Amino acid sequence: MSAPQAVDPRGPRFAAIVTTVVLVIVLATGWWPLLAAQTVVFAIGAFVGLRPAPYSVLYRLLIAPRLQPTDEREDVAPLRFAQAVGFAFALVGTIGYASGVIVVGLVATALALFAALLNAVFGFCLGCEMYLLLQRISPRAGSTS
Amino acid sequence: MTGLIVAGVTLVAAVIVGLALRSRNGRIRMSAPPSEPDAAAGPGSSAAIPASGDGDRGSGDGTPAQAGLPADVRDALAGEAADVTLVQLSTTFCAPCRQARALLTHVAEGTEGLRHVDLDITDRPGIARDLGVLRTPTTIAYTRSGGELLRVSGVPDRETLLAALEPRLPADGRSAADRSDVGHPTE
Predict the structure, then answer these.
(1) Which helix (H) or strand (E) holds A11?
(2) Where is the composition biased (Low complexity) (chain B) (predicted)?
(3) Which of A70, A74, A141, B65 sits between 20 and 30 A of B146, alpha carbons compared?
């Protein structure tokens, strides 16, 4: 690992695919402990780092040895921001399911699934793109231009 | 059961949105002519138009077209003059912004009369609001006088972008044969 600030872009893509599958299972079964586990996975990626994130470890152990190495690198900051967005939705979803407000659980999980699938299939990072919108909504965005 | 339906609907919705976003990526939107004073006046004469009272906001600061722009964009245009300046709006949390930056830097280096400026607006969302930009990267092409030519959201396509800007660039900038010094862009 020569460049700690960048990662093989296929790793996050793989993680998004796993996330998509996990979230579909959560929606189909309503088994919220799985969503809680996914929330922890998001939290590690967002607040600890991408390298120790479980799906990244899985990628390095199982997938990366079978692929050609690549020089392509992707910056970490957007990815971690996206993990934080995923964490927020998964947390709300977990609380919704666990407290019996199933609608909240369904909606929050569906939104997380929506973002994960866009990333997995199209390589499109919704959380990253939403950054401007999120800032616009937050009230402290009133600086003079 | 409900969960399964929600999952299915979400998957379909995500695929539709994904396809729509993919088709929009790099698409060029030509800006409305009124924001571009030298379209009517012809090249060279635009800077000479006095800032008479036709509703200009703020005076004395560059041309009338520039007066309506956020200060950071005006500063970006105020540097070394180029026929066309590509102002790219980026944020730190934006992976395609890096691709767009690499591509546009390369294109600008190889094209005479074309300049590229990357504005990081992570901490300056006011610029995005003023310019009506919702996603990054968005690249806006400005004339020397600050008139807006076109916008590209997402990572631009090199050839499409150059073709759209061609009427605005010096004819010897590229090995283009058709010199169009009339000034109105070809549709």
Answers:
(1) helix A10-29
(2) 31-53
(3) A141
